[in-house]
Amino acid sequence: MTSVVKFVRGIFQRKIDKVEVISDVPAAAEPGNDAERARLAQADSGEQPWRQWGPYLSERAWGTVREDYSEHGTAWDYFPHDHARSRAYRWNEDGMAGVCDDRQTFCFALALWNGADPILKERMFGLGSDGGNHGEDVKEYWWYQDSTPTHSFMRWRYHYPQARYPYDDLVSVNGLRGRDETEYELVDTGIFDDDRYWAVTVDYAKASPTDMCVLITVANRGDRAAQLHVLPTLWFRNTWSWGLPGRDAVPTITGADARLVGQHGILGQLVLQGDGDPTALFCDNETNAERLWDLPGRSRYPKDGINDHVVSGAATVNPAGTGTKGALHYVLDVPAGGQAEIRIRLSLTAPPPGTAPAPELDLGADFATTLAARRAEADDFFARVIPADVPPHEADVARQAIAGLMWGKQFYHFDVQQWLDGDPASPPPPPGRRHGRNSAWWHMNSFDVISMPDPWEYPWYAAWDLAFHCVTIARVDPGFAKAQLVLLLREWYLHPNGQIPAYEWAFADVNPPVHAWAALRVFEIDGGRDHDFLARVMHKLLLNFTWWVNRKDIDGNNVFEGGFLGLDNVGPFDRSAALPVAGVLEQSDGTGWMAMYALNLLDMALALAQHDPTYADIATKFFEHFAYIAAAAYKQGLWDDEDSFFYDQLRLPDGSKVPLKVRSVVGLLPLAATTRLTAKTLHRLPELAARLRWFLTHKPEYADVLGARRLAPDGRQQRLLSMVGPDQIVRLLARMLDEEEFLSPYGLRTLSRQHLDKPFTVSLGGQDFTVGYEPAESTSGLFGGNSNWRGPIWMPTNYLLIHALRDYAAFFGDDLLIEYPTRSGTKRTLAEIADDLSNRLISLFVPDDWGRRPIYGACDLFQRHPDWRDLISFPEYFHGDNGAGLGAWHQTGWTALVADLILTTRRPPTG
Questions:
Q1: Alpha carbons 277 and 199: distance in angstroms, whole number
Q2: Of 331, 502, 332, 474, which Cα lies nearest the Cα of 405?
Q3: Beta carbons within 8 Å of 549's beta carbon, 6+ residues apart
Q4: CA distances (Å), 584 to each of 277, 418, 559, 650, in order?
Q5: Is it the case that residue 32 has pLDDT exceeding 90?
Q6: For a tag site, which of 209, 373, 646, 789 has the least CB within 10 Å?
Q7: Which residues contact 176 (CB under 8 A, 6 or more apart)?
């Protein structure tokens, strides 16, 4: 039975009911089978708010659009890292190993100081898009090692140098490097060469939804004794400084010795208690206006007061022992090779007003029992998710990939209308904001926990990233996955015209329409029973599909445009910018995405029609939509029969066409537009069957995309609906599976390797535009220059194409054999090819025969060192030839699709 859970959308803002669609726990793991699934069931039903506290504190709030009030939208310059320790954030907070509640009323995180750095390490350092030679880049090493879906157990790991952190060196060297050079990373500075660093591990274990036991372990990996300052820090998000009516109440944190007590008018009483003999320090979460702008501030003890006191001994902490930010200051002397532990407990101890005497929290036997129990329950939970016969290294990859997704859930607050208007207590935004970035999205009001592309590199949601996240999340928490897909379709996200917001930098940019595909995958993974969820998603997607048809098919010829569509620099020029000449860019990927979208909605309608016959009409509608779109790709010339490939083409005002013969993933994506119609389905829906027969009789030109049929394993007829007809499938796969073109040892490249020696160049408007194969970082500044679709391997597009191959395999069975690799003389079934491609992608993360993980390239520290080699990162994309990790190198959410590949490819045999 589907349950409806109402969430309050606001704190210090108007209240709006938000409905979350939750389904039953999958039959394979019913509540009671293990403790974590019991907690999930309690959370889904509303019985216990196990998801209320989690790692929802962002890794980076500085340098974001939300905090940018500059005249020209220069977010990185307006709020740089140097301001972060001194400046109160308007919209959210950041920290290391942090947790908060799902409204970010309070925040808890770790601060460290090695005695040498110029500042406390309160947040991760990195370079902005202007400071790095290949876009944003974090310059720290930390890992999300574990997390259950309810965050009942979590583990975080960080390696902190004992020598002075080389801030200036990283800035200056990267500033001198060009796009043809690699990024200068922290490991390149030599700071880890002598093993003088701290391995800091933080374990979280929930005793209840609002009671967390925290174990901080600091290990001295160096060959000499060293001292480390550890500051577990509690603070309240600043909601009171902006002059908003009714939101000026200031909470307090007081305490002494090893205990902090927070009092908040809505949250209640919050206690942070530690063991040992720390010193309690207090300041206010207020901007140090004197340091930043030489102006008086709101507090004598502003946000950076604890930093200045610890680092330089300044009298910048409140001697009265009160504030809105507090820390327990531990000074640990640890011998060479030794380690020390700190026990911390964070608990909500009283409802509002929370003025009763604060209780003592148990840091003894109950703490130890809770921690041990949650660790064991996490192991039990993942033992049920990951089959026992999955090889140990792959099981580790899957578990850490899922952990990264769980830690990647972040609190996201952004009221665009308020951002456009400015706050009463702040200077007004520049006038140009009214016509600048996101000004047409004034309706948007976000106040939610959302899965982020990467908590540091991309600390804001992105629509098509999130769709892929939900596929893997559904393996462990289908309720949250479904709620996320519903969320972006709610009226406070979806534009009134039907567009799904893309991402914070430009909500109006166009991401590929994969929401419907993801909803179907989540529906299937969850057991295919939650038809209420499917119907709810479909109703909103009908608006979005209409937006695509009305806005991205300029001439109504069923060939679509769309712009960059997430593939930032895949073409010879920026597909989202004005064209170099007058005309229309007709896109193979845009048309392929829309054909896939139509089939996704057809499949939804077919599933829903089993319970509600009114959906049969919708099924017929999207059957026809697909037929028109798929056939138009051939009629309008996107398919090049001589090259056996789909290309974009530029249609000029005089009607002539310029094919852009770049062999890229753009021309492979039409493969993803496929589904099957079974005899059972057609028998159940006679109107659809009649329409299919009518099409094939009266419009034979659609036979290539509608006409293929064969017997299914059950002996019944089935039909293939595919943008790529049976003949074209074989020819297109010959390109895709060619090692001299797309097929790499580690998956599918995004650009044919043939463009290494033969770059494509087109002359337009007196200029030459060129695209060539670049297996690693891009040397082009196109579309900001911070990602590269000109050769590297990307997990999401690989995943889609593998999924498509499995769909084709379900139709053709073992009867269709494809030479794999091309020209090898070996023929394999499509299912075998899908498995092998999956294995190539999985192999990126697991040690090879020499014990080296391809993602770590030539870096011996990560490959050989026993303290580093089993800590797994999930990069944004991968070198097209050697598999080394590239781009956002920390914890890119959609790369966690590798976990789904492992669980799919290593599936137990059936029958």
A1: 22
A2: 474
A3: none
A4: 70, 37, 11, 6
A5: no
A6: 373
A7: none
Q: What is the pLDDT of residue 713?
A: 78
The amino acid at residue 798 is N
Model pTM greater than 0.90? yes
Q: How far apart are CA 826 and CA 817, in angstroms?
A: 9
List pLDDT tens digits, range 382-405. 999 999 999 999 999 999 999 999
DSSP helix/strand/coil, 152: coil
Burial class (CB in 10 A: 0-12, 13-18, 19+), 319: exposed
The DSSP element (H or E) to which 109 belongs, if any, is: strand 106-113
Q: What band does 456 get if pLDDT is binned at 50, 70 and 90? A: very high
Count of Cβ atoms closer than 10 Å to residue 383 Cβ: 13
Q: What angle do CA 452, 453, 457 make, to 5 degrees?
A: 105
d(CA 750, CA 220): 43
CA contacts within 13 A on the Cβ side of 531: 10
The letter for the amino acid at 653 is P
CB neighbourhood size of 730 (10 A): 15
**Nearest partner of 148 among 258, 260, 34, judged by Cα:** 34
Q: DSSP letter at 487?
A: H
Nearest to 485 by CA among 440, 444, 541, 441: 541
What are the tens digits of pLDDT across the range 38-48? 999 999 999 99
Q: Where are the beta strands (DSSP E) in 542-586?
A: 584-586
pLDDT digits (tens, 9 = 90+) for 634-653: 999 999 999 999 999 999 99
Describe the crossing of helices 392-407 and 463-473 by its angle, rounded to 10 degrees.
Answer: 130
| Three-state DSSP state, 687 | helix
